[in-house]
C-alpha cells in the first residue's frame, strides 16, 4: 500500500484538524514542525477553520474579555474562557479596528498605539515606532487588514493629520512600515470626509467615504488592491436622496452594500446592492423596520 504524498497529508488532512490537534502534530518530527509554521499551512488551516461549525466569539465587557465557543451543529452553553491581556490596557480603552485569521488589530486609547493581537495564543506585536508610524487616531484615520499574493499579513493605515494624508503599509513578515501613493488631486484627506471600516473582498479592501452626512452625491467607494498596492475609485449605487448611508459586507466573496435611505429618525427603505464588473446591481429592497436584523448566512 503506497503512502500518501507529504503535501496531501499536511494540507488536506492535518490542516483540517482543530488547533489543539495541530499543536500536537508539531511534536511528531522536525519536518512536520517546520511545515506547520510555514505561511502556506497557516493559510490552509485558517481557510478550513472559517468553514468549521466550531467558531469563537470574543466578548468585550467593561472589565473583562472572554472567548465563547459557538457550534451551530450542536448548540448549547459552554463556559466562556477569560482572556488575559498581555499589554496594559483596560478593555474600555481598546478599539478593535480589524480582524483576520484569528488576529485582531487594536488601538490602545491611552497611547494611540496599534497592536496586532491573537487572543487565543496571547501573542501580540506593537506596531508603533520612533518615526511616528503605528499611531492611530480613531476620529480621523482608517485601517484594513489583508494578506497579499506572497501570503504576507499586512496592515493598511490611512493617516490624516493637519489636512494631509499619508498611507502606510505594515508588513508582518518584514516587521517594517512602507508608504504607498494615494489618488492624485482628490479631496479625501479633508476632515469633512468620513471613512468607514475596511471590508476585505476578492483581493481588495473597500471603504465607503462620506462627505459629512447626507446627499448620495457625496458618497464614494474607495478600493485598495492588496496585490498591486494601488487605489481606485468606484461609484456609489444609483440612489438619489438627501439622506443616504451605506454599509459594505462580503457575502460569498462578492461585495455587497446595504444602503439605508432616509435620515436617522425616519428610515424609509433598505436596499441591498451587489458589485459586478465595477457596477452596482440592485438585489432587493424592503421597508425599514427597527427590529429587522441585518445579517447573512
Main attributes of the structure:
single chain; 297 residues; mainly beta; 20 strands; 43% strand; globular
What would you say this structure looks like, in words?
By secondary structure, the protein is mostly beta strands. 11% of the residues lie in helices and 43% in strands. It has helices at 6-13, 19-25, 30-36, 39-50; strands at residues 54-60, 65-71, 81-82, 94-100, 103-108, 113-117, 124-126, 142-147, 153-161, 164-171, 176-180, 193-195, 199-201, 204-211, 219-225, 230-234, 244-251, 254-262, 267-276, 279-287. Strands 12, 13, 14, 15 and 16 form a five-stranded antiparallel beta sheet that branches. Strands 4-5-6-7 form a four-stranded antiparallel beta sheet, with no helix packed on it. It starts with 5 loop residues before the first helix and ends in a 10-residue tail after the last strand.
In short:
This protein is mostly beta strands and 297 residues long. The protein has helices at residues 6-13, 19-25, 30-36, 39-50; strands at 54-60, 65-71, 81-82, 94-100, 103-108, 113-117, 124-126, 142-147, 153-161, 164-171, 176-180, 193-195, 199-201, 204-211, 219-225, 230-234, 244-251, 254-262, 267-276, 279-287.
Amino acid at each position: 500500500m503506497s503512502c500518501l504524498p507529504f503535501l496531501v497529508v499536511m494540507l488536506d488532512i492535518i490542516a483540517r484538524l482543530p488547533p489543539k490537534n495541530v499543536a500536537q502534530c508539531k511534536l511528531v518530527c522536525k519536518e512536520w514542525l517546520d511545515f506547520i509554521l510555514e505561511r502556506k499551512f497557516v493559510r490552509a488551516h485558517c481557510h478550513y477553520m472559517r468553514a468549521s461549525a466550531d467558531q469563537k466569539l470574543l466578548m468585550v465587557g467593561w472589565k473583562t474579555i472572554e472567548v465563547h465557543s459557538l457550534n451551530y451543529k450542536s448548540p448549547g452553553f459552554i463556559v466562556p474562557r477569560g482572556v488575559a491581556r498581555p499589554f496594559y490596557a483596560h478593555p474600555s480603552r481598546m478599539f478593535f479596528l480589524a480582524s483576520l485569521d484569528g488576529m485582531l488589530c487594536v488601538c490602545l486609547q491611552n497611547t494611540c498605539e496599534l497592536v496586532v493581537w491573537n487572543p487565543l495564543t496571547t501573542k501580540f506585536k506593537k506596531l508603533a515606532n520612533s518615526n511616528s508610524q503605528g499611531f492611530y487616531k480613531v476620529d480621523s484615520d482608517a485601517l484594513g487588514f489583508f494578506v497579499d499574493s506572497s501570503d504576507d499579513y499586512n496592515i493598511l493605515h490611512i493617516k490624516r493629520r493637519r489636512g494631509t494624508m499619508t498611507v502606510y503599509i505594515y508588513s508582518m513578515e518584514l516587521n517594517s512600515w512602507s508608504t504607498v501613493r494615494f489618488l492624485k488631486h482628490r479631496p479625501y484627506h479633508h476632515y469633512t470626509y468620513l471613512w468607514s471600516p475596511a471590508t476585505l473582498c476578492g483581493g481588495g479592501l473597500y471603504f465607503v467615504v462620506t462627505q459629512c452626512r447626507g446627499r448620495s452625491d457625496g458618497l464614494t467607494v474607495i478600493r485598495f488592491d492588496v496585490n498591486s498596492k494601488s487605489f481606485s475609485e468606484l461609484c456609489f449605487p444609483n440612489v438619489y436622496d438627501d439622506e443616504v448611508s451605506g454599509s459594505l459586507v462580503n457575502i460569498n466573496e462578492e461585495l455587497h452594500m446595504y444602503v439605508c435611505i432616509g435620515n436617522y429618525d425616519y428610515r424609509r427603505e433598505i436596499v441591498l446592492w451587489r458589485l459586478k464588473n465595477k457596477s452596482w446591481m440592485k438585489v432587493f429592497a424592503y421597508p425599514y423596520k427597527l427590529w429587522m436584523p441585518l445579517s447573512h448566512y
